[in-house]
């Protein structure tokens, strides 16, 4: 009788599904979690781009409050968004940074860029044991300041 039960194949598919289903569920959960993380990352980068676009308007390079407002408007669902900004000069597009724009006298008009960094602490969509329930997402954007004729 035991030998007959060991050779019987009825119900073997159910056992195979019982082993495969948890693995497939974990893969699905991981895919959804990664997708939600990517969405948050895109929101933080979009916030940096909006802030840098605001800062690229002549006269706004030092307006950190305006850049922060632009970032928060671009991504209203992010809470705890922090914005940092700085600017630099080059003599040629994409050239080396210069500290004194008078160096550019032989190379043409100095070019100014604004750099905005954004950071947000985001809750994990599906917190896992040992991984943590929040993580930090960073974004950065660099825009060339529009030339303003004197």
- Enumerate how many helices there are, as a single number: 3
What is the typical, i.e. mean, pLDDT?
A: 85
Given the helix and strand composition, which structural class is it? alpha+beta
Poorly predicted sequence stretches spanning 5 or more consecutive residues:
none
Span of the ends, CA to CA? 99 Å
As a whole number of angstroms, the C-alpha radius of gyration is 27 Å
Helix content: 40-55%
Which series of helices and strands comes N to C?
HHHEEEE
DSSP strand count = 4
Beta-strand percent range:
25-35%
Main-sheet strand order equals 2-1-3-4
Number of domain units: 1
Inertia-based shape: elongated
Largest sheet: 4 strands, antiparallel
Give the arrangement of secondary structure elements.
Blueprint: H1 2-7, H2 12-55, H3 64-74, E1 82-90, E2 97-98, E3 111-128, E4 132-144
Antiparallel strand pairs: 1-2, 1-3, 3-4
Helix pairs in contact: 2-3
Which tags fit this structure?
single chain; 150 residues; alpha+beta; four-stranded antiparallel sheet; 3 helices
Explain what this protein looks like in three dimensions:
With 150 residues, the protein is of the alpha+beta class. Helix content is 41%, strand content 28%. It has one domain (12-144). The chain has helices at 2-7, 12-55, 64-74; strands at residues 82-90, 97-98, 111-128, 132-144. It has a four-stranded antiparallel beta sheet.
Short description:
By secondary structure, the protein is an alpha+beta fold. The protein contains three helices and four strands.
